[in-house]
Amino acid sequence: DTAVSQTPKYLVTQMGNDKSIKCEQNLGHDTMYWYKQDSKKFLKIMFSYNNKELIINETVPNRFSPKSPDKAHLNLHINSLELGDSAVYFCASSPGLAVGRQFFGPGTRLTVL
Amino acid sequence: TQLLKQSPQFLSIQEGENLTVYCNSSSVFSSLQWYRQEPGEGPVLLVTVVTGGEVKKLKRLTFQFGDARKDSSLHITAAQPGDTGLYLCAGAFTSGTYKYIFGTGTRLKVLA
Q1: What is the dihedral sign for C-alpha A26, A27, A29, A33?
Q2: CATH number of residue A41's parent domain
Q3: Residue A80 sits in which domain range?
Q4: Does some domain include residue A80?
Q5: How near does any CA of chain B get to the CA of A73, in Å?
Q6: Concatenated DSSP letters for A31-98?
Q7: Closest Cα to residue A63, out of A82, A87, A37?
Q8: CA-CA distance, A70 to A73, in Å (whole number)?
Q9: For residue range B37-73, what is the model confidence (pLDDT) as tens digits?
Q10: What is the mean pLDDT of residues A50-62?
Protein backbone atom coordinates (compact mmCIF):
# COMPACT_ATOMS: atom_id res chain seq x y z
CA ASP A 1 0.00 0.00 0.00
CA THR A 2 2.99 2.28 -0.56
CA ALA A 3 1.77 5.77 -1.42
CA VAL A 4 4.96 7.23 -2.94
CA SER A 5 7.71 4.81 -3.91
CA GLN A 6 11.20 5.41 -5.24
CA THR A 7 13.82 3.12 -6.70
CA PRO A 8 16.56 2.52 -5.99
CA LYS A 9 16.90 3.20 -2.26
CA TYR A 10 20.69 3.42 -2.53
CA LEU A 11 22.80 4.32 -5.54
CA VAL A 12 26.60 4.29 -5.51
CA THR A 13 28.32 5.26 -8.72
CA GLN A 14 31.45 6.74 -10.22
CA MET A 15 31.91 10.34 -11.28
CA GLY A 16 30.95 10.91 -14.90
CA ASN A 17 28.32 8.17 -15.03
CA ASP A 18 24.66 8.66 -15.96
CA LYS A 19 21.96 7.37 -13.63
CA SER A 20 18.19 7.46 -13.20
CA ILE A 21 15.88 7.43 -10.18
CA LYS A 22 12.27 6.37 -10.58
CA CYS A 23 9.24 7.55 -8.64
CA GLU A 24 5.65 6.38 -8.61
CA GLN A 25 2.63 7.52 -6.60
CA ASN A 26 -0.67 5.67 -6.23
CA LEU A 27 -2.53 8.51 -4.50
CA GLY A 28 -4.15 9.87 -7.64
CA HIS A 29 -2.36 13.18 -7.12
CA ASP A 30 -1.92 15.69 -9.92
CA THR A 31 1.41 17.14 -8.82
CA MET A 32 4.81 15.53 -8.26
CA TYR A 33 8.12 16.94 -7.09
CA TRP A 34 11.80 16.19 -6.81
CA TYR A 35 13.76 17.48 -3.83
CA LYS A 36 17.42 17.31 -2.89
CA GLN A 37 18.38 17.02 0.79
CA ASP A 38 21.96 17.91 1.58
CA SER A 39 24.17 16.75 4.43
CA LYS A 40 22.77 19.50 6.66
CA LYS A 41 19.27 18.12 6.05
CA PHE A 42 18.13 21.17 4.09
CA LEU A 43 15.39 20.23 1.62
CA LYS A 44 15.45 22.14 -1.64
CA ILE A 45 12.94 21.74 -4.41
CA MET A 46 14.35 20.90 -7.83
CA PHE A 47 11.35 20.30 -10.09
CA SER A 48 7.60 20.09 -9.99
CA TYR A 49 5.23 18.59 -12.53
CA ASN A 50 1.51 19.22 -12.60
CA ASN A 51 -0.49 16.88 -14.83
CA LYS A 52 2.73 15.91 -16.67
CA GLU A 53 3.60 19.57 -17.30
CA LEU A 54 6.79 21.08 -15.87
CA ILE A 55 5.75 23.87 -13.50
CA ILE A 56 8.70 24.52 -11.22
CA ASN A 57 12.25 24.32 -12.46
CA GLU A 58 14.59 25.76 -9.89
CA THR A 59 18.19 26.63 -10.62
CA VAL A 60 19.44 23.13 -11.22
CA PRO A 61 22.26 22.11 -13.59
CA ASN A 62 20.90 20.95 -16.92
CA ARG A 63 22.58 17.60 -16.24
CA PHE A 64 19.39 16.90 -14.29
CA SER A 65 16.41 16.10 -16.47
CA PRO A 66 13.01 15.08 -15.12
CA LYS A 67 10.55 13.06 -17.17
CA SER A 68 6.89 12.44 -16.42
CA PRO A 69 5.44 9.73 -18.66
CA ASP A 70 2.09 10.02 -16.86
CA LYS A 71 0.57 11.65 -13.78
CA ALA A 72 1.63 8.79 -11.51
CA HIS A 73 5.31 8.75 -12.47
CA LEU A 74 8.13 11.26 -12.30
CA ASN A 75 11.64 10.05 -13.05
CA LEU A 76 14.91 11.91 -12.61
CA HIS A 77 17.83 11.34 -14.95
CA ILE A 78 21.26 12.69 -14.08
CA ASN A 79 24.05 12.93 -16.65
CA SER A 80 27.78 13.19 -15.97
CA LEU A 81 27.49 12.75 -12.22
CA GLU A 82 29.70 14.94 -10.03
CA LEU A 83 30.87 14.56 -6.44
CA GLY A 84 28.60 17.42 -5.39
CA ASP A 85 25.55 15.50 -6.56
CA SER A 86 25.89 13.18 -3.57
CA ALA A 87 22.78 13.70 -1.46
CA VAL A 88 19.42 12.14 -0.67
CA TYR A 89 16.82 12.75 -3.37
CA PHE A 90 13.16 12.70 -2.42
CA CYS A 91 10.16 12.39 -4.64
CA ALA A 92 6.87 13.81 -3.36
CA SER A 93 3.32 14.30 -4.55
CA SER A 94 0.39 16.54 -3.65
CA PRO A 95 -3.27 16.72 -4.68
CA GLY A 96 -2.60 19.89 -6.63
CA LEU A 97 0.04 22.56 -7.12
CA ALA A 98 -1.52 25.10 -4.79
CA VAL A 99 -2.21 22.47 -2.15
CA GLY A 100 0.65 22.69 0.30
CA ARG A 101 0.56 19.29 1.92
CA GLN A 102 2.94 16.87 0.29
CA PHE A 103 3.55 13.16 0.65
CA PHE A 104 7.12 11.99 0.39
CA GLY A 105 8.80 8.85 -0.83
CA PRO A 106 11.47 7.09 1.25
CA GLY A 107 14.33 8.79 -0.56
CA THR A 108 17.25 7.66 -2.71
CA ARG A 109 20.70 8.07 -1.21
CA LEU A 110 23.07 8.86 -4.08
CA THR A 111 26.79 8.57 -3.46
CA VAL A 112 29.16 9.67 -6.19
CA LEU A 113 32.74 8.40 -5.81
CA THR B 1 15.84 34.74 -1.41
CA GLN B 2 12.92 33.70 0.71
CA LEU B 3 13.91 31.77 3.80
CA LEU B 4 12.07 29.94 6.52
CA LYS B 5 14.28 30.03 9.57
CA GLN B 6 13.70 27.54 12.34
CA SER B 7 14.96 27.76 15.89
CA PRO B 8 16.50 26.13 17.69
CA GLN B 9 18.54 24.18 15.21
CA PHE B 10 19.24 21.40 17.70
CA LEU B 11 17.43 20.47 20.90
CA SER B 12 18.23 17.71 23.36
CA ILE B 13 15.85 17.32 26.29
CA GLN B 14 14.80 14.79 28.90
CA GLU B 15 11.63 12.77 28.63
CA GLY B 16 8.71 14.62 30.16
CA GLU B 17 9.94 18.13 29.39
CA ASN B 18 8.07 20.63 27.25
CA LEU B 19 9.55 22.36 24.21
CA THR B 20 8.71 24.87 21.51
CA VAL B 21 10.11 25.08 18.00
CA TYR B 22 9.78 28.28 15.99
CA CYS B 23 9.50 28.87 12.27
CA ASN B 24 9.92 32.46 11.06
CA SER B 25 9.92 34.28 7.74
CA SER B 26 9.49 37.72 6.26
CA SER B 27 7.06 36.29 3.67
CA VAL B 28 3.33 35.81 4.05
CA PHE B 29 2.28 32.23 3.48
CA SER B 30 -1.02 31.01 2.11
CA SER B 31 -0.54 27.82 4.09
CA LEU B 32 2.10 26.31 6.31
CA GLN B 33 2.87 22.69 7.06
CA TRP B 34 4.86 20.90 9.73
CA TYR B 35 6.59 17.61 8.94
CA ARG B 36 8.62 15.12 10.97
CA GLN B 37 11.41 13.16 9.37
CA GLU B 38 13.09 10.12 10.89
CA PRO B 39 16.50 8.79 9.79
CA GLY B 40 16.39 6.98 6.46
CA GLU B 41 12.84 8.05 5.70
CA GLY B 42 11.03 10.87 3.95
CA PRO B 43 9.27 13.70 5.81
CA VAL B 44 5.80 12.84 7.09
CA LEU B 45 3.13 15.51 7.19
CA LEU B 46 1.90 16.36 10.70
CA VAL B 47 -0.41 19.32 10.15
CA THR B 48 -1.48 22.11 7.81
CA VAL B 49 -2.45 25.58 9.06
CA VAL B 50 -4.10 28.09 6.80
CA THR B 51 -5.73 30.89 8.80
CA GLY B 52 -3.79 33.56 10.70
CA GLY B 53 -3.96 32.84 14.44
CA GLU B 54 -5.07 29.26 13.85
CA VAL B 55 -4.22 26.71 16.54
CA LYS B 56 -4.31 22.96 15.90
CA LYS B 57 -3.68 20.15 18.32
CA LEU B 58 -2.44 16.68 17.57
CA LYS B 59 -2.28 14.74 20.86
CA ARG B 60 0.65 16.35 22.74
CA LEU B 61 1.60 18.59 19.81
CA THR B 62 0.16 22.09 19.47
CA PHE B 63 0.68 24.07 16.28
CA GLN B 64 0.06 27.79 15.93
CA PHE B 65 0.06 29.99 12.83
CA GLY B 66 0.97 33.62 13.44
CA ASP B 67 -1.69 36.28 13.00
CA ALA B 68 0.19 37.74 10.03
CA ARG B 69 0.81 34.27 8.55
CA LYS B 70 4.58 34.86 8.57
CA ASP B 71 5.50 32.54 11.42
CA SER B 72 4.48 29.40 13.22
CA SER B 73 5.32 27.45 16.35
CA LEU B 74 5.20 23.82 17.38
CA HIS B 75 4.85 23.06 21.08
CA ILE B 76 5.32 19.55 22.45
CA THR B 77 4.07 18.76 25.93
CA ALA B 78 5.71 16.01 27.99
CA ALA B 79 8.09 14.94 25.25
CA GLN B 80 8.73 11.24 24.74
CA PRO B 81 11.64 9.40 23.09
CA GLY B 82 9.31 8.61 20.19
CA ASP B 83 9.16 12.34 19.41
CA THR B 84 12.83 12.27 18.41
CA GLY B 85 13.36 13.37 14.83
CA LEU B 86 13.90 16.24 12.43
CA TYR B 87 11.03 18.73 12.46
CA LEU B 88 10.52 20.77 9.31
CA CYS B 89 8.15 23.61 8.63
CA ALA B 90 7.25 24.41 5.02
CA GLY B 91 5.24 27.18 3.48
CA ALA B 92 3.40 27.92 0.28
CA PHE B 93 3.32 31.43 -1.15
CA THR B 94 3.06 33.25 -4.43
CA SER B 95 5.85 35.55 -5.55
CA GLY B 96 5.05 35.94 -9.21
CA THR B 97 4.85 32.18 -9.39
CA TYR B 98 3.87 29.53 -6.87
CA LYS B 99 6.62 28.72 -4.39
CA TYR B 100 6.93 26.08 -1.69
CA ILE B 101 9.92 26.21 0.60
CA PHE B 102 11.12 24.21 3.57
CA GLY B 103 12.52 25.55 6.80
CA THR B 104 16.07 25.02 7.99
CA GLY B 105 14.98 22.20 10.32
CA THR B 106 15.11 21.44 14.03
CA ARG B 107 16.72 18.23 15.21
CA LEU B 108 15.06 17.04 18.41
CA LYS B 109 16.42 14.33 20.64
CA VAL B 110 14.39 13.19 23.63
CA LEU B 111 16.37 11.20 26.16
CA ALA B 112 14.71 8.49 28.24
Answers
A1: negative
A2: 2.60.40.10
A3: 4-96+106-110
A4: yes
A5: 18
A6: EEEEEEE-TT--EEEEEEEETTEEEEE-S--TTEEEEEEETTEEEEEE-S--GGG-EEEEEEEESSTT
A7: A82
A8: 6
A9: 999 999 999 999 999 999 999 999 999 999 999 999 9
A10: 83
Domain residue limits, chain B? 5-111
Tell me the C-alpha distance between A16 and B4, whole Å. 34
Taking the CA of residue A91 and the nearest CA in chain B, the distance in Å comes to: 9
pLDDT at B79: 97
* Residues B86-103: tens digit of each pLDDT: 999 999 877 777 788 899
Among the partner residues A42, A100, A104, nearest to B104 by beta-carbon distance? A42
Chain A contacts in chain B segment 34-93 (CB below 8 A): 35, 37, 40-45, 48, 86, 88, 90-92
* Domain count along chain A: 1
Q: Is residue A101 part of a domain?
A: no
Q: Report d(CA B89, CA B21) in Å as an integer.
A: 10
Task: Work out the minimum CA distance from B37 to partner chain A, whole angstroms.
Answer: 10
B98 lies within 8 A of chain A by CB: yes
- Residue A97 φ/ψ, nearest 5 degrees: -65, -40
| Domain at B5-111, CATH from 2.40.30.10, 2.60.40.10, 2.40.400.10, 1.10.357.20 | 2.60.40.10
Interchain CB contact of A44 with B (< 8 Å): yes
The mean pLDDT of chain B is: 93
For residues B4 and B25, the answer to whether their CB atoms sit within 8 Å is yes
Label residue A41 by pLDDT band (50, 70, 90): confident
